[in-house]
Amino acid sequence: MTIRSLLLLGATAIVGPVGALAEEILFCGSAPYYASQYTCYDSEFLCPILYGQPTLRCGDACHSPDLYWCDGTPQLRQLPIMPVGYPYKLLVQSSNPALDGRTVHVSGLQFRAGADAVTTTYCYNAPPLYDCSLYVNQTILLENGSMSVDVPGGQFWYVDPDTGLLRTTAAGKAAGPERYLAGLGVTTYHDGYFWYTGKSYWLACKEPGDAEIYNIAMPITDDDGGCERIRLVSENTAIFRGAYSYT
User: What is the Cα–Cα distance from 180 to 158, expressed in whole angstroms?
Assistant: First the structure.
């Protein structure tokens, strides 16, 4: 049994006596491992669990199904990029059960996640052009850096270069110069990673107080500042009218 490296994901699977002392030590072939940290394939091959998600075996490599697929030869192939204009939601991957699988919302023009996070919107009701009953009021993004909105002038998502926060511009003509940052640095894979160039994770920074609300940010220093490392993944949706605008 040899230790396997997680191909192209910047992590190495290390087998050893780490983790909670109360957790049972299992064996994959002759190698000991914790089920909370690794998955054993074919009774001989260990792949790490990252951000709460098992990585999969493909030949002699481990891979994330949110970035690659195994073609059966077996060779790894990268997932396609989300086509321009396709609507999608964002979901959190995390080893923290309070965050894992949570839908990402926009409120206060910031992207947030957690049990108490909600999407806040505004609608100008002027049927038949703008009918507020037609909007699902969910946080829906488009690959071109836009939000799925009907407000004239649009609304855009971007990473704040000063704080790293994942944000939206104000709606319509109030969008300001941040509109020119729309989508910069981010690659969205089709039903896969929402990936900032040069970074392998995002940060979820809990707001003060008892509410389970975390602000989403791109790390801009080596100090996580007490925030949790997470990954974001896209989930394709047929919803093209997310909201009239987000607030």
Answer: 9
Cα of 185 vs its chain's centroid, Å:
14
Q: What is the DSSP letter of 134?
A: G
Q: Which of 56, 78, 100 is where one domain is finished?
A: 78
Both tokens assigned to 73: 């030869």
The answer on 101 and 72 residing in a single domain is no
pTM for this predicted structure: 0.87
pLDDT in tens, 196-238: 999 999 999 999 999 999 999 999 998 999 999 999 999 999 9
User: Pairing relation of β-strands 157-159 and 166-168?
Assistant: antiparallel
Q: How confident is the model at residue 21 (pLDDT cuts 50, 70, 90)?
A: low
- Cα torsion 217, 220, 221, 222: sign: positive
Confidence check: pLDDT of 12 > 90: no
Contact 151, 172 (CB under 8 A): yes
How far apart CA 133 and CA 77 sit, in angstroms, is: 42
| Whether residue 101 sits in one domain with residue 69 | no
Which one, of 46, 12, 11, 54, lies nearest residue 26 by Cα? 46
98 and 34 within one domain: no
Residues 63 and 141 in one domain: no
Please provide the average confidence, as pLDDT, over all residues in the chain: 91
List CB contacts of 208: < 8 A, sequence separation 6 or more: none
Judge if 220 and 203 occupy the same domain. Answer: yes
Least trusted range by pLDDT, from 37-46, 86-95, 125-134: 125-134
Domain range enclosing 234: 87-246
Q: How many independent structural domains does the chain possess? A: 2
